[in-house]
Structure formats: C-alpha cells, structure tokens
Amino acid sequence: MFLQFLCMLFPPITAVVLRNRFKKEKRSAFRNIIEYLIFALIINSVVVFIISILLGYEINNLRNFKIQFASLYILLSVILTVIVVFLTCSIRIKAELNPVELHNMTALKLIIKNVVTALLLFSSLIIWFSAIWILNNFGLVTPEKLIFQMNVPLKGTDINFIKSYVLNCIVTSVLLLIFFMTIINVRWKNRLIIKVWLLSKSLSIPFSPHLFFKKFSVAVAGVFLTTGIVNFAISMDIKGFYNFTFNNSQFIKQNFVDTKNVKLEFPKEKRNLIYILLESMEVTYMSKEHGGAQPVNLIPELTELASDNISFCNSKLGGAYQLPGTGWTIAAMVSQTSGIPLRIPIGDNSYGRYGSFLPGAMTLGDILEDQGYNQTLMVGSDADFGGRKDLFTQHGNFKVLDYFTAIKDGVIPEGYKVWWGFEDNILYEYAKDELLNLSQQDKPFNFTLLTVDTHHVGGYVCSVCQQNQGYSFPSVLSCASRQVSNFIEWIKDQDFYDNTTVVIAGDHLSMETKFFEDLDENYIRTTYNAFLNSAITRGDQRSREFSTLDMFPTILASMGVAIDGDRLGLGTNLFSQQPTLLEKYGIDEVIEELNKSSRFYNNRFLHPN
pTM for the complete prediction? Predict the structure, then answer.
C-alpha cells in the first residue's frame, strides 16, 4: 500500500510546496488543501492516461503497483509536477471587458447574411444528425440499400421511425439553429480582452463575439457544413457508392444461371410449401455451444427445430452469409426467391419509372404459378412498404394478406395499429385460417409468411411475451422463438402436413445496433435456416459456405424438384455437391464484386428489352 500512496500523493504535495516557495506566497491551510486536490487530480489523471493509453499498461487494481511500475509512475509524476509548477509560476492570465464600437451593416446585407448563415447551419445540422440517426438505427448502410429506399415510397413505414427522425434530426436541428442564430445576432456592447503574462512578457488578446460572428458567421457555417458532408460521406461509405456507380463488374454475368433455361422436374405429387421468413433472425442469438454468440440461448425452440431437422451451416447451426443487395427485407425476399441481389443504379429510378418490379427476373413465385400453385403472401404490416406487394403480385400472382385485409376480414378492429401494423401472435392465428383455406383447395399451395415483432428498434413486446426488466429485445427474441415453435406444432397436427415442406429462414441480419455493441469482433453473423419435412435428405453433413442467394434452388430441392445442374440465378442447391459462389471464390471476392456496378444486371433485370 505504501507504493500506491507514494505514487499518488507525493507528486501533488511536491507541486504545492514548490509553487509556494517559487512564488514566495504564504497561503492558508485551506487554500493549500484546495490547490493540492486540484494538482492531485490533474497530475494523476494525466499520468494514468499516459501509462494506460499511450504506453499500454493495464491499471485494473492497486496490485499492479510493483517497484518497476511505481518507479515509472513516480518518474512521470515528477516530470509532470515540474511542468505544472513552471506553468503556474510563469504564466498569469487575466480577462477584462472593454467597451467595443459597434459596426452596423445595412438591413439588406444583414438579412442576406443571416439567411445564408441559417441555410448553411440548418443543412449542416441535418446532415450531422441524420448520419448519427442512420448509424444508430440501421448500423452500416450499404449503397444499394440507401438508393433503393430513396426510390420507393415510404408508405407503410412504422410511424415510430418517422417520429424518431423528426424529433432527433429535424426538431433538434431547428432548436440548435435558433440558439446559434440568437448568439450570432446578439449586439455585444463589450469585447473580451485576455491578458497573458509569461515571465516578464505580456500579451493582450482581444476577442469580440459580436464582431467575430458578424464577420465570420457564413465562413464558420460553411466549414461546419463541409465537415458534415465529409462525415456523412465516410459514414455512408462513399467508396462503396463509387464502386456501385462507376466500377462495372462482370461477376454476375459470368456466374448467373438463367432459371428460364434450366430443366425443373417436379414430383408427380406436388408438395405444398410453407415458407416462414422471420424478421432479422440470426444464429447469433443462440448460445455459444450451438454456434451463436450468447452466454444463454435466447431462441431455444428455434435451435431445437434446426437441430432436429435439416439446417445448413458453416460451423455448428444455421449460417447463411449476407451479401450486398440482400440485407433488408424486400432485398432478402428477392435474393431468397430468385437467387439475385436487389439493386437499383444511382440516377435510374427504374422501380418507379416502369411500374414493375424486376421485370427480367424469374422467381420461386413465377415457377410455382406455372405449376398451378395457389399462392399467398401474409405480412403483419402494409404490404406496399418497400415494394413487397409488387414483387409478389407481379411474380406469381400471389394473394396478399396484410394489415388492411386483416381489418377487412375482422382479424383486428378498425383503427387498431401497433408496431408496424399488428403483432405476430395475431399474425399466426390469421395464418392458420388461411392455411386451412388453402388446404381445402384442389391445388398445391405456397404460403409465404413474414413476421415483424423482431424488427428494430427494440422489437415489439406483445401480450404473450415474458418481459424482463430493462432492454426488451432479448425478451422479444425468446417470445418469437416460442411462437414459431407453437405454430409449427399446429402445422404438424394438420392433415396437409404429410405433403408439405416447411422452410424457416431469417430474412436478413438484424439492424438492432444496440444488441451487438459487445459482440466479439471475430464472430461472423449469419442468418437462421431450418428445413422441416423435406422431400429429400442431405447426402452429407459437411459444413457449407453459403449465402441467402442459395436458398432459392435449395427451397425447390426440398420440395422434391430435380434441378438440372443444381444452380439457379447466383444460387446453388445446398443438397447437392455443387460448390456455392462463396466456396468457389471466397466471401471477400464475392462481396467485392457484388459491391460494384453491373450493366448486365441493369439491362437484364431492371429494364430488359
């Protein structure tokens, strides 16, 4: 203990004694104590910073104060003490207020200057706060995602997102703008004179807030705007935008397999498909022993479903990598049902211009429609959001059931709305009615269900969730796992199950940035998958390096469809021995190429001849 006290107490005492001796001042004991405490705080804080941050020593507890360490601590403290004593004895600073002559400008010039300053400041504030808001709510934003969202209507967006942006970005910017403009236009009657004495030399530094703001307000606002734009560009991956716009890649063209030209052989008795897309469901939520990243398994029921059935993996359980153009809901739906990413080039609003969704693509819905399937898409929100309704009605003529049809069908009362529309426990009951209806038809069916409770930010705590104190997202995940399991048990009890393949998949990686703050940086996040009652079994149990693009041919194969060549789009049938793109090229190369522009993609899928 002696070394610890010596390290922390001796240098400040030395500083006080030396300062009093050099300045030849007699001070009261109270002033000496106050001065000692100030010196102690400054010296020890700086020394700790130097040792821990700059030199890399760990200061976890007092036991680290060994002889060698203590010697270094005291040496640095003594050096810093000498510097502090020299500065406090050699430098004296005094501030005065003197009257200042006001320089008025014409009313017109003042108005113009204030308008320009206000516009620059408001723009810069919006840009700064927007960058912070986007990163906090969505994490890393990819070019294709941002461009797509700019090209589709906001209809169906959760109102809480809009409120959050308005409050945190627009309202905050307006309030700060009012504050800054008030400061800028205050008519200061005095100017501040700062006098500095260094040994025998003196220096006077005049500072007039009024004149400074009047003269340089536009320049300061311009600098602030410039730094805001640079920060936004870095946060939004400006290099990615360049590659996405100008750096053309042949990768998609070289590896694309046209589904229209592939022989697909369906079994004599066509199987039904129940395809459950779980919002933001990852393997990450499992315990470490199962391949996740949690000390406690947050999704035990989903883990059991994957363990007891077929789940393609890259390590233990689950494991689809997320590639560019597949990382949000509608992009995930495109990638998993057509084997291609979703992308719209900058400056080409193809989505809105042509009124059609990927007219050159062939999807799972297109294939099953040609085979005579009845098809339904069910979501617990507005199906128009993100173009989901367009995708499924234009590729497979799906019957679409969403928030508005739920009101029409009496599932929820008029005016009822929570979260993005209505919660998953109601969605599953709605799904049961539709499945019974489909099963009574004389055609095979494809029922696609998209959940919503696990959407960011924070997820939705419904009436059947077991809410824990504090952060709600883990409780929402566990609740979602239980609800899926209960729904699967109901499906298994139905007569149609024997001839039905059930596919459960996470649509994309979660954007719940808060949940992943403490995640091991070496852990690779992947989406969940499980195939129940598949028409075929796996030939081997080897780990696969695969992406959500591979779900397209794999889902068809699980329905008993024989695929000539075992590849569709950019995807590979995981039941086969064919290598995936990730296994062939490696994930880094695939990501690099898919981040680039592709004229082949634009001409083939967005506006084909």
Answer: 0.69
